[in-house]
Design goal:
The protein is mainly beta. About 5% of the residues lie in helices and about 40% in strands. It has three helices and 27 strands. The strands form seven sheets. It has a five-stranded mixed beta sheet with strand order 7-8-9-10-14, with no helix packed on it. A four-stranded antiparallel beta sheet has the order 1-2-3-6, with no helix packed on it.
Length: about 375
């Protein structure tokens, strides 16, 4: 897995070491069990009521949907009769819906939490590298590995119709990260070519002919001297942050007209590989060394480090992605909540932003080159 991003509460987009991206959709069984386990009302959204599960065909490479009609037409095996695989049906239904009230064990997870694949997106010339979705769930942006400018394009897709609506051509090497602005009007892209670009995507729709558009703004010369690894928008004023292998965090401010200028920057001891800005403007940084820091922009236009996660709770490999999650106030110490094994290429934390519950206690997720995923809770003291 090289990237994953939630499109909505019931769909996500993923990419791996192949040229195709895949869209998966939740099932009604998944939502009913999630509601029963958490005790919270979960809205399944439209289009999932008839899909109750998924299975992987014996000769297939992707999850196929199982509907209530499929289950009704599957013959029941009785003692002394032929098995399901001997019956004249298109596939063997290796799925049995389970009503869960507690977190499931691994065997149940395999059978009852698969999401069926509903669409494939083709268009990139090399292996998919990065993907993201706009906050209004209108557009998807994807990129692939590229050593030449002709392949270093960002493709925009329309959610629902899954049509390609635009190709964004500017970068010369792999686009390492993309981020939509909070109002979904702009897309920010950063690349191995040490450049960033801002694109106006507000007018794109299915009725717009597929075409290439020019960037609204690009980085000034030598803004970063090495690869730009990540970027993130601030929540209100359309300023944004970029981080790079040159060991710098740079904050860019919206200027007069439709441009951005350098606001301030901060140098660190090791390359900065990941960044995310919270709803209240806190800057979470991940480093090539595996360390994690929380910073903020001061009224004096400098970057202040508020907290550094203890080294015992950090990983020893480069951080690939970091992301905040708004949460209720809780324990007053930094605490590792969850750790697990995975590819560590992309992580997406979902949850509604409830400002009255944010307080000064924060949760964030990280993933790293060593294949680990961590969810960390930390308390920030007022200064």
């Amino acid at each position: 897995m090289s990237c994953v991003h939630c499109i909505s509460d019931s769909q996500y987009l993923s990419g791996s070491e192949e040229k195709v991206l895949r869209v998966f959709q939740a099932t009604s069984t998944f939502f009913s069990n999630l509601s029963a386990i958490t005790g919270c009302s979960v809205d399944a959204g439209g289009g999932v009521d008839h899909v109750i599960g998924a299975h992987i065909p014996a000769l297939g490479l992707s999850n196929k949907a199982i509907t209530s009609e499929d289950m009704a037409n599957t013959p029941v095996q009785h003692e002394g009769t032929a098995s399901i695989k001997d019956c004249d049906i298109p596939y063997q239904v290796a799925f049995a819906p389970a009503d869960l009230t507690t977190p499931p064990v691994e065997e149940v997870l395999l059978q009852n939490t698969l999401w069926p694949e509903v669409h494939k997106l083709y268009g990139h010339g090399y292996e998919v590298y990065q993907c993201t979705a706009s906050p209004d769930s209108r557009l998807l942006a994807t990129s692939c590995k590229a050593a030449q400018q002709q392949f270093a394009v960002v493709i925009l897709w329309r959610v629902g119709s899954w049509n390609k609506v635009a190709e964004l051509c500017h970068h010369k090497l792999t686009v390492t990260r993309m981020s939509f602005s909070p109002d979904s009007q702009y897309l920010l892209s950063v690349s191995r070519d040490r450049d960033w670009a801002v694109w106006d995507v507000s007018a794109l729709s299915d009725t717009t002919p597929e075409h290439s558009i020019t960037p609204l703004a690009t980085s000034p010369p030598k803004a970063h001297s090495r690869i730009i690894w990540d970027c993130s928008w601030f929540p209100e004023d359309l300023s944004f942050a970029t981080v790079s292998r040159d060991k710098r965090l740079v904050l860019w401010d919206r200027a007069e007209g439709r441009s951005w200028t350098l606001g301030c920057s901060q140098a660190f001891d090791t390359p900065v590989t990941a960044v995310d800005v919270s709803v209240d403007g806190l800057i979470l940084l991940g480093f090539e060394s595996g360390s994690l820091k929380i910073c903020r922009r001061t009224p004096q236009n400098t970057v202040q480090t508020l907290h550094e996660v203890p080294i015992q709770q950090c990983v020893t490999h480069s951080i690939n992605t970091v992301q905040w999650r708004p949460m209720r106030t809780g324990k007053q110490e930094t605490e590792t909540l969850i750790s697990g094994e995975g590819e560590g290429k992309g992580v997406k934390v979902t949850g509604k932003s409830e400002e009255e519950h944010c307080g000064r206690c924060k949760e964030f997720a990280t993933c790293s080159e060593d294949g680990s995923v961590l969810v960390i809770r930390t308390s920030l003291q007022e200064s």
